[in-house]
Specification:
This protein has helices spanning 3-43, 47-75, 77-97, 101-118, 120-129, 132-163, 172-175, 177-191, 205-224, 234-257, 272-302, 307-312, 315-321, 324-327, 333-336, 339-357, 361-389, 395-423, 428-463, 467-477. With 481 residues, the chain is mostly helical.
Length: 481
């Protein structure tokens, strides 16, 4: 047997396991939005309890992503991925069997925490075990998985709830994870590489507490404040998140300065390419999720479209986002270097076209497809640029920061743009145009940040030629593919 072919098969198997784990988590984020009305009819939760069923998962997930990334580095990426997958599968079973709303909410929180333990190992695994074109292809498949999970969640949720399988109503949307998770656990135990490089350092529990508190103070009002009419408590909570997160940053820098292991090594943000890339991704991601929220409201409340129509018309938007990842490695390097700027310019143009023309039906779907493609090109190329610039020792830090950055920007985008749309007076068409213009402006800001990152990269190439080969050697030495 050819050893190179055997190694290629094992790396493909490893990547398949990692991406299927990511796929499960993404499906579960979207699928419950569709099943929410069925849950309400069966368990009769209050409005706040139903919101927790949907959002509690995202809340626990966002709070613990950085911690999950550090645990992977300290205890082993393989071990933490399989542990997260096992807990996620068990929590899915508990969700499907939940007799009352409280049990469902608790199981959803555990699901989110398990997802936060599992998902950071996906990007870390790609960064550690793949280099060069192999890494670009793997990251492209990750972007495709992100979009595919969102589409599958929308479709599977509707199909399963409508089919009322075995008279179980909404429960199969959770129970389907159990056999899939069990098979994936067996495959992961066989295909994921051993944790030879795991470090047994102490987890910064103080950092976990500070980061969790800061993210909760930030996300809880953003997730629940808009629907509640922004009550008084939301503003002190948002204000308090700033000093708490600042305290977290100071603690991490202090631990790193004395040679310890911080929860998140923020020195990675000192690299301009990484910092600009994260900022660009945050701006673009905020518009991606907010667009889905605002467009659904506009189509149903202003144009009288059905929920099915508003869901289906967004499929090209989400699906085309995944095309950019696999497409990038096939393009010449001189083109991919400018992909973030070109992608976000295309996204801004689509936002303006949709806002000014206010198309319906097929023209709207086509435009959304182009917008999703632009966003996918920008996101995938920014992801590759950030991970290529950071040495492999920063893999867990970068994985945690990228995932948390995307989650927080999504929550903030829906809160900010949703509030703008609902708060504007006058005809809904006018409000829709204004918000689309705001989306376009934000996409242009993402384009500017991407361009600044490109300039920073050029300066590093010109002024840091000596460290570049060492950085590549660092990444190559830690890779296994």
């Amino acid at each position: 047997m050819d050893p190179s072919n055997d190694g290629a098969r094992r790396s493909r198997g490893m990547l398949a396991v990692l991406l299927l784990g990511q796929f499960m988590v993404n499906v579960d984020t979207a699928i419950v939005n569709v099943a929410g009305p069925a849950v309400q009819d069966d368990l009769h939760p209050s409005g706040g309890a139903l919101e927790l069923v949907v959002s509690g998962y995202t809340l626990a997930y966002a709070v613990l992503l950085v911690t999950g990334a550090r645990l992977g580095d300290a205890r082993g990426h393989r071990r933490m991925f399989l542990l997260g997958l096992a807990v996620f599968t068990a929590a899915s079973l508990a969700c499907g069997l939940a007799p009352v709303t409280g049990a469902l909410v608790a199981a959803r929180l555990v699901q989110g925490a398990a997802g936060a333990l599992m998902v950071p190992q996906v990007l870390s695994g790609i960064q550690i075990h793949f280099t060069g074109k192999a890494r670009a292809r793997a990251q492209g498949m990750l972007v495709l998985t992100l979009s595919g999970g969102a589409v599958a969640g929308q479709v599977l949720g509707g199909v399963m709830v409508s089919a009322d399988l075995f008279g179980l109503g909404w429960r199969p949307v959770f129970l389907v994870n159990v056999p899939v998770g069990a098979v994936l656990l067996v495959a992961g135990a066989r295909l994921l590489p051993r944790d030879a490089g795991a470090r047994a350092g102490r987890l910064d529990l103080g950092g976990v507490a500070l980061l969790s508190a800061g993210v909760l103070l930030l996300t809880v009002p953003l997730m629940f404040g808009r629907e509640a009419g922004w009550p008084v408590w939301t503003w002190p909570s948002l204000a308090a998140s700033v000093p708490v997160l600042g305290w977290f940053v100071r603690r991490q820098r202090r631990i790193a300065a004395r040679g310890g292991t911080p929860l998140a090594d923020l020195r990675v943000l000192a690299r301009p390419v990484v910092a600009w890339s994260l900022g660009s991704i945050a701006l673009a991601t905020a518009t991606f999720f907010a667009m889905m929220f605002v467009l659904a409201l506009y189509l149903q409340q202003s144009l009288g479209k059905s929920p099915m129509f508003s869901g289906l018309v967004l499929v090209p938007w989400v699906a085309a986002f995944g095309v950019g990842g696999p497409l990038l490695p096939r393009l010449p390097a001189r083109i991919t270097a400018h992909a973030p700027v070109a992608g976000y310019l295309l996204l801004a143009a689509v936002y303006l076209a949709v806002g000014l023309a206010r198309p319906d039906g097929a023209p709207l779907a086509v435009l959304l497809g182009f917008g999703g493609l632009g966003l996918g090109l920008g996101f995938a190329s920014q992801l590759g640029r950030a991970t290529a610039d950071a040495p492999a020792r920063f893999a867990p830090d970068l994985s945690g920061l990228i995932n948390t950055n995307s989650q927080l920007s999504a929550v903030a985008g829906v809160a900010a743009f949703g509030t703008l749309y609902l708060g504007l007076g006058g005809p809904p068409r006018h409000a829709f145009t204004v918000v689309m213009a705001a989306f376009a402006g934000t996409a242009l800001a993402a384009c500017a940040a991407a361009f600044a990152g490109w300039v920073a990269g050029r300066r590093e190439d010109a002024g840091d030629q000596g460290s570049r080969p060492a950085r590549r050697a660092d990444a190559t030495a830690s890779s296994r593919v």
